[in-house]
Amino acid sequence: MKNFKTTELRPKVVLGVAAHPDDLDFGASGSMAKWVAEGADVYYLILTDGSKGTDDRQLSPAELINTRREEQKNAGKVLGLAEVLFLDYEDGSLECNYDVKRDIARVIRQVKPDVLVTFDPSVIYSASRGFINHPDHRAAGQAALDAAYPLARDHLSLPELMAEGLEPHKTSTILLMNFDDANYYVDITGTFDKKCQTLAEHKSQQMDGEAQKFVKELALEAGKAMGVDYAEGFVRIELK
Ligand SMILES: [Zn+2]
User: Fold this and answer.
1) Domains of the chain as residue ranges with CATH
2) What is the pLDDT of residue 226?
3) Given 6, 136, 183, 205, which residue has the most CB atoms within 10 angstroms?
4) Which residue has the higher pLDDT, 27 or 211?
5) Could you tell me the distance, in angstroms and rounded to a whole number, from the CA of residue 80 to the centre of ligand 1?
6) Between vectors from CA 216 to CA 214 and to CA 222, what angle results, nearest 5°?
7) Whole-prediction pTM value?
8) How much of the chain exceeds pLDDT 70, in percent?
9) Could you tell me the distance, in angstroms and rounded to a whole number, from the CA of residue 155 to the centre of ligand 1?
10) Residue 46 CA, ligand 1 centroid: distance in Å
11) Which residues, at least 6 apart from 151, have a Cβ–Cβ distance to it below 8 Å?
12) Beta bridge partners of 237
């Protein structure tokens, strides 16, 4: 895998695409905060309504949807995001289908990111870390990649978007959240505290305790690979 150790990204517009409220904050909010501080416009696009993410049996799906949306908006305020957008597909059954891809491509053509951050759809499980990647994460990553290339880029793709006045857009850099593999690191030593604050906004997701421990472990590990205190690692693809 090509290594991008020495070529630091200075994005102008960043679009994060993920399945659930909290996904991007977990995987990339240290980097997002850094890019905001450097003057970038950072947008989040959350594909599902988050209606399944609770152990609380008293909570209705409608209440949970509202709560998680508010939590993500508040986390966005902590980060200084330009906007948090929601598509409201049903949590737990996200598919990489035409509608989802078109809806992501629409946002790509609207906000015109030079850097797109999403999940690495090739991660099905991690035996070493002991988790199965949520199927919504895989579908979100695959749909975002398909939307970036070729759907948002080619003028003959998705004629309905052209009819809406949305010209094609070429995203030059893709950063994939993978957690086991990386060829590019962002130094988040200066924004790690902000990442923790951002995660704390997702109160319904119990982001304290074990989850915070895992976040710190990942940041220390990536930091070690980069030679700094804290970092976030990504699989970086430069589209030719
Ligand atoms: Zn998730």
Assistant:
1) 13-238 (3.40.50.10320)
2) 95
3) 136
4) 27
5) 21
6) 100
7) 0.96
8) 100
9) 32
10) 10
11) 101, 102, 105, 157, 158
12) 174
The CA 77 to ligand 1 mean position distance, Å, reads 20
Task: Using the predicted structure, report yes or no on whether residue 240 has a pLDDT greater than 90.
Answer: no
Amino acid at site 217: E
How far apart are the CA of 163 and the centre of ligand 1, in A?
33
- Give residue 126 CA to ligand 1 midpoint distance, Å: 15
* Contact in structure between 75 and 201 (CB atoms under 8 Å): yes
Cα–ligand 1 centroid distance for 215 (angstroms): 14
Cα–ligand 1 centroid distance for 182 (angstroms): 20
What local confidence, expressed as pLDDT, does residue 43 receive? 98
Ligand 1 center from residue 19 Cα (angstroms): 6
Q: In Å, how far are 18, 114, 117 from 153, measured between CA atoms?
A: 20, 12, 17
* Distance between Cα 240 and ligand 1 center (Å): 30
Angle at 3 between CA 20 and CA 12, to 5 degrees: 55
End-to-end CA distance of the chain: 16
DSSP-assigned letters across all residues of 19-62: SSTTHHHHHHHHHHHHHHHTT-EEEEEEEE--TT----TTS-HH
In angstroms, what is the span from residue 159 Cα to ligand 1's centroid?
Answer: 31
Summarize the confidence of residues 79-99 as an average pLDDT: 97
> What is the tens place of the pLDDT at every residue in 30-78?
999 999 999 999 999 999 999 998 888 888 999 999 999 999 999 999 9
